[in-house]
Specification:
By secondary structure, this protein is α+β, with helices and mostly antiparallel strands. It is built from 4 helices and 9 strands, in the order H-H-H-H-E-E-E-E-E-E-E-E-E.
């Protein structure tokens, strides 16, 4: 699918949000291997295993590694130009990295659709309905940024499920910009 060009108001909201936000694959379980769309997405996104390739293509780092009581999301890199009411498996709005020593390792992608884009129903990708609508996730975005999202753990096995918002095996421990929430993250 192709993205449509968002209105000036939507672009301004996305840019404001992006400003606020700027602060080797494991063996894959059968649930991940069963969907050919996931294999295609993994192949298309392989170049982003190098986070500098992501930055070169317009992804900007939130710097913060998000963790919850039931797991972590990792460090988010956001590409505001990919935000719109339609989703494209080759253009996730967010790439998610796990900090490991001095490196960032690509573990997941997140497709993110703000309600401000005019979307009227939860998007579907890879046969999965997006979570939401939900408030923005402080501190990396304002709570007023209501949205739908779908996390997809393409590069790291997740015992909570391929589409869980967090992965208990992703760690923010020792990462200078870690942020721990006192709650569990769940699908909505």
């Amino acid at each position: 699918m192709l993205l449509t060009v968002p209105s000036r108001r939507v672009r301004r909201a996305v840019l404001l949000t992006a400003t606020v936000i700027l602060a080797a694959p494991a063996a894959l379980p059968a649930q991940q291997a069963a969907n050919p769309g996931l294999d295609s997405a993994r192949t298309l996104l392989n170049k982003y295993r190098d986070p500098m390739a992501a930055v070169h293509d317009g992804y900007l780092s939130t710097m913060i590694c998000m963790s919850f009581t039931n797991g972590a999301m990792g460090v988010h890199l956001l590409n505001a130009s990919n935000i719109g009411p339609a989703v494209d498996m080759a253009k996730p709005q967010v790439l998610i990295y796990e900090p490991v020593g001095n490196d960032l390792r690509l573990v997941a992608a997140e497709w993110f659709v703000p309600l401000a884009t005019g979307v009227t129903a939860a998007p579907v990708l890879f046969g999965e309905t997006f979570d939401g609508p939900m408030d923005g996730h402080a501190p990396i975005m304002p709570a007023s940024l209501r949205h739908y999202d779908l996390h997809v753990w393409l590069y790291k096995t997740n015992r909570l499920g391929m589409f869980s918002p967090v992965n208990p095996d992703v760690k923010c421990t020792g990462y200078k910009f870690g942020h721990a929430e006192a709650t569990a993250a769940t699908r909505q």
